[in-house]
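Q: Structure tokens for this one, please.
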Amino acid sequence: MKELVVSLIGNPNTGKTTLFNTLTGSNEHVGNWHGVTVEEKYAFFSFENQKIKLVDLPGIYSLSRLSFEEKVATDYLLANKDNIVVNICDYNNLQRNLYLTLGLIELGCKIIMVVNQIDKKKFRKINLSLIEKQFGIKILEINAQSKEDVEELKKEICNYSFAKPKIDYLKQIDLKESYSLLPKNIKESEKNFYAIKLLEDDEDIKKQFNIKKKFNKADIVASARYDFIDKIMKECASENKKTYGESKLDKIFLNKFLAFPIFLFLLGVVFYLTFFSIGAFLSDGLSYLLNKFITNPFLGFLQNNLGAQSFLYNFFESAIFGGVVSILTFLPQVALLFVFLSILEDSGYLARVAFVFEDILSKVGLSGKSVYTLLMGFGCSTSAILTARNMEDENAKRKTALLTPYMSCSAKFPIYVCLGGAFFGVNNIFVILGLYILGVVVAISMSSIYERTILKSKEQSFILEFPPYKIVNLKQILKVFFQNAKLFLTRVGTLIIAMNVIVWLLGNFSFSFKYIGNSNSETSILQCLGKVLAPIFAPLGFGSWGLVSALIAGLIAKEIIISSIALFNHVDASNIVEFQNSLRNPNSIVNFVGPSSVLSYLVFCLLYFPCLASVGVLYKEIGKKWTIYGVLMQFLVAYFITMFIYNIAKAVELFGALKVVLVLLAILIVVISVLLIVKKIKKKDTCGNCLNCPKNCKKNNK
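A: Here is the predicted structure, written as tokens:
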């Protein structure tokens, strides 16, 4: 039987990806922001012996092709006109969703309209049967999470019979001139779509048909659609008692005085629960179980049969259990971080955060779309960079992609917890929060510099739809937890084990390929490389070969920094007390001389080179030149910011916080005074009308 292909399309926040997951049994990420589906993705399912390929297109508001998402979706639909199109709409936001539906009708698509009941409470009563007659297309009302409801949709897909939809509202628009300009080989079913695109001055369509005439009638077309939708809704729906997404909570969360403090407070709560409360308890429990039932029995067996000094015992103790098990103990915390971010997102709060940051980011050449990418960077920079591709302005896309690695991804927080905890104790939560904030501040500052120099952005449109606040589904939370746990385990089971073994081999063999082990008779390959590079980092307070070698290993994956340090110090990183004691021991290969040194190292880990996976994605998305530039710039920024912070922290250690603050305040006052004097001198050197003078003349040249 021939494979049936179905396209799934709808506005953002209509439950499109949820329906995709329910139909296919997939686990695609469900989100409220641009770029969650940045290109078409597909999966298969079967119904009544019919194999069906379901293509999930990006969430869009129209077929205007002004944004990356609209271009991807429209181009796919044009190239696959024979597909059945499932157009998903939200019951409580149907009036807005119908604008895209009209675009699909104009395109001549084979439409099945699915009205998703996302919220249990209906804001108004809608006669869907009457709308079905008015539009001339099949309409189903379902809950996208209900497998029973979705069965009806599967049946409708398999038994679909095409009926030409009604588009009477086009009579209000004069299409004669645009019809006459279309090539004769255009299909009858596509003429309305292309004629309307000409009236809207769609540059791609005009270029395709070599038409240069300007129509400037996009507003007329839009008005005709909206008038038709308003007429339909008045006839088929009761009065709307509530605006979609409207909530009294927004008076608090969007308050200009409270918005930022609330965001920082929620971020602090997330970090506390992840690193010190629930997350720490789960990590300690997992560490205990791994050591009792796996590590200790296996190493005990090797010790009894081979001896504690044997090659194999050293290999399994350091390369496998000492590194991998130590990283595994952070599994609960990594998964929890994604869960809390998912809760903030699915509750509708993160969409508000994007709105709050829009004004700030627009001043540095970014938009609210960048907020989504940067926030995703807290999870994984590699996947976050991909979401930047939906930006219509190329420079804004480059900037956002280059700034994303400055965000503190989840792979870095084991470093903060292990190293920071050794010197800052319970105050480490403030250090961690400060590191996350520092990443954001550096990203915004760099964007401001780029905007004023080499990457000036054009004015960007940003359409943001506030989803209603809702209580997150427990099933969805568990799905996010296990999905990210699986990804973490896959990463540990492949990349981290492989890299840990490589680091162990380099650290235990000399250039003559002689096994050294714990002997100091010869220098290992890794030690030689580390000693060559160590002097470069001496001004930053951590010029030991072990710390530098760990940074090199961290280029593959940031988690490896912890396992590498544990390997060099011959300790088990899963035993957090033993690991942290080794960092304070001056006889250890890897140690820190004080809080200023470890703080410097943490800042550098936050800001230095992204992992190789992120570099690969940067290369794919923004090209070779900008990737090389971004990586080198990130290293320089990391180096000088770390040097500054280290010297300030060292001064605080030596002279006390109060004296350092007073000195910095004095320097700031001197700098401001000098700038004011220079400004005053420049002002005196110009005539009073220079601001209005076309030549901006100098006083002595009048």
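A few notes: The chain has a mean pLDDT of 82. The domain at 4-166 is CATH 3.40.50.300 (Rossmann fold).
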